Amino acid sequence: MNSLNNTGSNIVIVDDLANNLRVLSEILQSGGYTVRPALNGEIALKSIRSKLPDLILLDVRMPGMDGYEVCRQLKSDPMTREIPVIFISALNDIEDKLAAFNAGGADYISKPFQMAEVLARVATHTALFKSRQALKAREECLQRSLRDMEAAHLRLKEMSSELLQSEKLASIGLLAAGVAHEINNPIGFISSDLNILKSYVGSLLRLIDEYALLETNAPDDMLKRIDETKQEIDLPFLRQDVMELIGESIDGSERVCKIVQDLRDFSHPGDSEWRQVNLNTALDSSLNLAWNEINHKAEVIKDYDDVPMVECLYDQISQVFVNLLVNAAQAIGEKGQITLRTRSENEWVTVSVIDNGCGIASENTEKIFDPFFTTRPVGKGTGLGLSTSYGIITKHGGRIVVDSAVEKGAAFTVWLPVKRSDSA
Questions:
Q1: Crossing angle of helices 220-233/235-267, nearest 10°?
Q2: 3-state secondary structure labels for all residues of the chain
Q3: 274-417: what CATH class?
Q4: Beta 409-417 vs 348-355: how paired, if at all?
Q5: Hey, what CATH topology would domain 10-113 get?
Q6: CB within 10 Å: which end of the chain, N or C, has fewer?
């Protein structure tokens, strides 16, 4: 018996002589091996490919396809190239042995067969083969583990970033709710009073016009005082400027009201019913709402796919689209282009708003979703649009990503799951 523990291995013997097959089979079966004989190369190749063995004993001289050709075919096939081949032959010339090794053979056994030698060589090569297979399996397992670890590491980084962003949104949301509450009442009074004041001033100006009709009948000294007063106060300028000042004040109060509403939406976006929505239609509706910002600045190109319905909060998703459209318009100088693109991928639908405007500097791409971050001049933006959009999309179990380069534009892509996520 062989000293190595390789019993149970599956071995194919290829020889055109039935007696050789019988002798080798008896030797190997005595060692506990499973044996599959084959009388020629063609039969052997079919047998080997149908069920891969642990070792092949291959005769050199056979009619039709000789052992060298059989071995070359085995070594050219990725499925069988690792299986060790031991040539068996009565030829003992060094040239024959070199030819066997050049064809891919692992060893060489001369006829007539010696039982101890056959078992020793077979045991060694089956043990080596199984060790290589085990090492290969462990290597593949390690590679899978490494890939899993890399994927887990990447996901941890993403989760860390998402957690940090969520913490920012949560903390700033509390602040926003308090600020919005404190500002809302006084700004309401100011806005209301300004509109009343505008009405009052309009009435006073009409009264001045009525008095002007009586000036022709006034005494000369009174007319002189009236003319001097008009020149002193510059009445034509005052009439124009007072209404402009009131109008600007009303516009300013309305802007403050809008900021307050943005703060309230940011801290607690208004709920609506979850329903199935066609995002192509929702994008068109949002485009209509933002059209005043876009109309004179950009050509709009629609690249819509036939995307599936998405379960979402329609009002909130529309708010996100409007924010992205307005941002795209504001990023464009005098004239540009905005592309709207929808696609579906597995259980996701993507909506992209792409502009060829000024783009975003690389150092700002990680900050653009932070509350109150804006690259626009003071007074021209609150920095809440993208952070609010981020919160809405996260609530829907989706994500929003940006791809941008300075002076080349920006592409914002929203990913939304087709079905409502459990956490939404």
A1: 40
A2: CCCCCCCCCEEEEECCCHHHHHHHHHHHHHCCCEEEEECCHHHHHHHHHHCCCCEEEEECCCCCCCHHHHHHHHHHCCCCCCCCEEEEECCCCHHHHHHHHHCCCCEEEECCCCHHHHHHHHHHHHHHHHHHHHHHHHHHHHHHHHHHHHHHHHHHHHHHHHHHHHHHHHHHHHHHHHHHHHHHHHHHHHHHHHHHHHHHHHHHHHHHHHHHHCHHHCCHHHHHHHHHHHHHHCHHHHHHHHHHHHHHHHHHHHHHHHHHHHHHHHHCCCCCCEEEECHHHHHHHHHHHHHHHHCCCEEEEEECCCCCCEEEEHHHHHHHHHHHHHHHHHHCCCCEEEEEEEEEECCEEEEEEEECCCCCCHHHCCCCCCCCCCCCCCCCCCCCHHHHHHHHHHHCCCEEEEEEECCCEEEEEEEEECCCCCCC
A3: alpha beta
A4: antiparallel
A5: Rossmann fold (3.40.50)
A6: N
pLDDT number for residue 353: 95
Q: How far is the C-alpha of 340 from the C-alpha of 283, rounded, in Å?
A: 8
Picking from 351, 358, 355, the residue whose alpha carbon sits closest to that of residue 299 is 355
CA dist 55 → 89, 120, 411 (Å): 17, 13, 58
Query: How remote is the C-alpha of 95 from its chain's centroid?
Result: 61
Residue entry with tokens 């957690």: 163
Nearest to 103 by CA among 46, 65, 63: 65
Burial 369-395 (b: 16+ CB within 10 A, else e): bbbeebeeeeeebbbbbbbbbbbbbbe
- Given this model, what pLDDT does residue 382 score? 47
Domain ranges of the chain: 10-113, 165-267, 274-417
Structure tokens at 262: 């943005």
pLDDT < 70: residue spans in the chain: 1-7, 157-181, 258-272, 371-384, 421-424
In this prediction, residue 170 carries a pLDDT of: 54
CB distance 53 to 36 below 8 Å: yes
User: Residue 169 is encoded by which pair of tokens?
Assistant: 């949104």
- In angstroms, the CA 248 to CA 58 distance is 98
Beta bridge mates, 275 = 312
Give pLDDT, residue 161: 60
β-bridge mates for residue 354, sequence order: 339, 411
Q: Exposed, middle or buried: residue 346 (CB in 10 Å: 0-12, 13-18, 19+)?
A: exposed
